[in-house]
Each structure stands twice: as structure tokens, then as C-alpha cells.
Amino acid sequence: MLTLPVRLDRADPRPLGTQLADQVRRLVLDGVLDRGDRMPSSRRLAADLGVSRSVVEQAFDQLLAEGWLEARQGSGTWVAGGAGAEGAARPARRRAPAPTRPLVMLDAGTPWIDPRHEAVWRRAWREVSSATPPRGYDDARGLLELRTLVAERLGRTRGLAVDADRVRITGGTGAGLRHLLAVLPRGPVAVEDPGYRAAVATVLESGRTVRDLPALEPVHDLAGCVAAYTTPAHQHPLGRVMPAADRLTLLATARRDGALVVEDDYDSEFRYDVAPVPALATLDREQVAYLGTASKSILPSLRLGWTVVPDRLLDAFDRHRDLIHDAPPWPVQRAMVTLLRDGYVDAVVRSARRVYAERAPRVVAALEPYGELAGPVAGMYSTWLLPHARAARARAAAEEAGFRVNLLRDYCRTARLSGLVVGFGGPTDEELDRALAELVGSLSGARR
């Protein structure tokens, strides 16, 4: 009987049973577990992993329902699809295939990058190479010229009237969130469920607990929480825009209960059905800390973002960053100055918006017969509600063909939702068509 090479992480926000089921699926897909292998008993595996037997049984029940495992009367649990009766010869174990090429990401965060703008990149880096770097450590607030350009753009595109003195340049939204948590009192942080997994991990790493906020409901209670993290322009990952009434309710609740609202505005500019909704921070700049990023509009590997910090937290925010010598690299900031100053960012956003507006209907036409849209299609992905077993099979089929598609359940903590989160920013048109064909083939039952 096998010993499973799995490890459960109690710091992971996902339930232990979900972690175990995910790892068993991965072992089967990688060829570590072969069809016809007998699984350890739930009692033995629970003892090996140091968890209750119910955790293992929950995982096995899920995998049985999805068809990854099969139960044989009086004989235990086996990897599905192997030899029939116990004692019959089993097929030789496959070696895990050597990796050939990276998976094409159809996730919610990989944007489309217009290859026609390579010349602009080269010009930006030429300017960096001819500029004089600072003699000492970088200003932790960010380059003044960059903060000025970001403030101008926030006013023009997000309706957020701020000056450079209120803008702080960071290493992305995750860095901005970490710095905010460092200057807030101790206490839980409320995060949308389902929601952005990196935000949950950041809160947990700060030593705080996470309180789940049902993503599609108004927020009436933040008692005891020091902050509430939200994605109001395009809820991640369900896609809904937070209604005006819910925005006002959230702000009123936060004021009453003394919680900071952290607004992650991660892909707000990519609406192609209506004009972008103004930032939540426009309604109350002192109650809301605003997080923005260049990852979705320009390039994820820049690792550059900005935070608009409420006045009451600004001094503490700056002292914390000075203390730890935190600042994005000076060359990256200088390049970003060129990209903003020369209109490159606006051009990229316009180009990407056109591409997403063309791709979104193709994704909807392909998947609408098999699932229900969780929210309006905007940005660079769409989320589809469907039974978890079907979603898992479709994801496995896509991965076997070289594509990574995320499961909605992986974004959930207590929410009982399942389906697929299908991004369409990262692939080429031809790759997107092939990925959709794999998903449709699995969901329609054409491939088993």
C-alpha cells in the first residue's frame, strides 16, 4: 500500500480536506499515482498526516464523486481506471513526464501585452541608462516626478483628486497592503469570500486572523476588525461591480466600527460595456486606503504599484518604510516616469481594452451552454458557476493540453461556490481558441 507524498499546511486558508484532495489530483496527473494503485486507508493516512479521520474521508468522498478514485467492496479505495479485481496484474507505473514547456496561463491576473509597443520600452530603458541615480538610498515615498504623474492619472481616470504628497510608490498592491497592516492596530481583517488569495495570505502572514465577508452581500458588521479589504470596481473573482448602495453601507459600517477600508482597484480601467466606475476612495478619502498597480495595465514583472494613504496614517506609513528601507528599484520608477509621461500607459490600456472586448464574447459564446456567469464580463477574465466535479475535469483536460485554468473553489474559504475562472488576457488568439476547445470538449462530455 502506498505512502502518499503530501503535506498539509495549517497556515493555508483552504480547508485541510481541500488541500489533500488537490494534492491527490496533482499526484495522479503527474503520474506519481497510477491507475489501479491502492490508496492508504483513511485511518492510516489520517495518522500519517496528523489530522482527524474526517478530513481524509472528506477528501476521499470528493475525489470519489469526481471520478479520480473508486471504492471496491471489501477491498478499499483505488485510483480509478485500473485493473479490475484485487490481485489482477496492474499496469506498470508510468514515470512522471519530464516538463516540456510552461503552461499557458488562463488566469485572472495575466494581462495582454501589445507587442507593437516594444520600441517604447527600449526608449524608456535608454532614458534610464542616461539618467543619474540617487547617491544614497531611494526616497521611500517614491520619485516625486512619478508620484506627480500617478496623481494626475488617478484624477483623470479614476476620479480620485489627490496630490503627489498623498501618493506612495510601492512594490505592488501586496506591498501596499503589507505596509498598511504594519501601521494599523492589532486585530482581524475582513476579506471578501471568495476573494483575492494573495490578500488573504498577506493578512495571515502579518499574524492576524481573517474574517470572511460574503462577496455579494452588503457589509453591516465590521466590529472588532481593523480593516476590510475589498475589490469594488470588479470583485475578484466573481466580477461584480459593488452597487452604489452597498458602497455607502460599507463606508458607514467602517466609520461606525472604526475599520479602515482597503480598496484594491486592480483592473478597474478594463470596462468595455460602460465607463469605468469611479474609485470607492472618491467617496471618503480618509476612510479608504487606495491600492493601484501597473501589473494589469503594463507588465506584472514590473512589480510596481501605488497607495493613496489616508492623512491619519501617512506619517506612520512613511516611518515604517524608512525603517525597513523599502522602495521599488530606482530604474523601474524612472522607466515608469517615461511610460506615463509619453502616453504609453494610456495607449496600452486602450489597446488592451479593445482586445478584451473582442475576446470576451468568444469566451461567453463557448462556455455559456455549460455554466452560469457569476457576474458581468469585464477586465481580462470571466467566472463560470458549475458543479465542482465538472469544473475539475475541465481544468484537468485543459492542463493536459498545456493550459492553466483556475477553479473557483480555490478562491473560497467558507463560501460554497464552484466553477471555473477563465482568463483571456495572457494567451494568443490561437492559444485561447485551443484552450476553449479543450474546456468545451470536457464540459460537453465529448472527452472523458
What is the secondary structure topology, with strand pairs?
Elements: H1 16-29, H2 42-49, H3 53-66, E1 69-72, E2 76-79, E3 104-106, H4 118-130, H5 144-158, E4 167-170, H6 173-183, E5 189-193, H7 197-205, E6 210-214, E7 227-230, H8 244-257, E8 260-264, E9 288-293, E10 305-308, H9 311-323, H10 330-341, H11 344-367, E11 372-373, E12 381-385, H12 388-400, E13 403-407, E14 419-423, H13 429-443
Parallel strand pairs: 3-13, 5-6, 5-7, 7-8, 8-9
Antiparallel strand pairs: 1-2, 4-10, 9-10, 11-12, 12-14, 13-14
Would you write up a description of this structure?
- This protein is α/β, with parallel strands linked by helices and 448 residues long.
- It has 3 domains: 64 residues, Winged helix-like DNA-binding domain superfamily/Winged helix DNA-binding domain (Arc Repressor Mutant, subunit A, Orthogonal Bundle); 229 residues, Aspartate Aminotransferase, domain 2 (3-Layer(aba) Sandwich); 98 residues, Aspartate Aminotransferase, domain 1 (Alpha-Beta Complex).
- It is 39% helix and 14% strand.
- It contains 13 helices and 14 strands.
- The chain is globular and about 70 Å long.
- About 3% of the residues have low confidence.
Query: Largest sheet, described in full?
Result: 7 strands, mixed
Global mean pLDDT: 88
Q: List the domain count as a whole number.
A: 3
Silhouette: globular
- The name CATH uses for the topology of the largest domain is Aspartate Aminotransferase, domain 2
Order of helices and strands: HHHEEEHHEHEHEEHEEEHHHEEHEEH
Ranges where pLDDT stays below 50 over 5 or more residues in a row are 82-95
> Radius of gyration over alpha carbons?
24 Å
Question: Which class do the helix and strand fractions yield?
Answer: alpha/beta
The CATH superfamily label of the largest domain reads Type I PLP-dependent aspartate aminotransferase-like (Major domain)
Termini gap: 27 Å
In the CATH scheme, the class of the largest domain would be Alpha Beta
- Please count the beta strands (DSSP E, at least 2 residues each): 14
Count of helical regions: 13
Oligomer: single chain
* CATH arch. level architecture of the largest domain: 3-Layer(aba) Sandwich
**What portion of residues is helical?**
25-40%
- Proportion of residues in β-strands: 5-15%
Spatial order of strands in the largest sheet: 4-10-9-8-7-5-6
Domain HTH gntR-type: 14-82
Keywords: Aminotransferase, DNA-binding, Pyridoxal phosphate, Transcription, Transcription regulation, Transferase
Organism: Nocardioides aromaticivorans
InterPro entries: Aminotransferase_I/II_large, HTH_trans_reg/aminotransferase, PyrdxlP-dep_Trfase, PyrdxlP-dep_Trfase_major, Tscrpt_reg_HTH_GntR, WH-like_DNA-bd_sf, WH_DNA-bd_sf
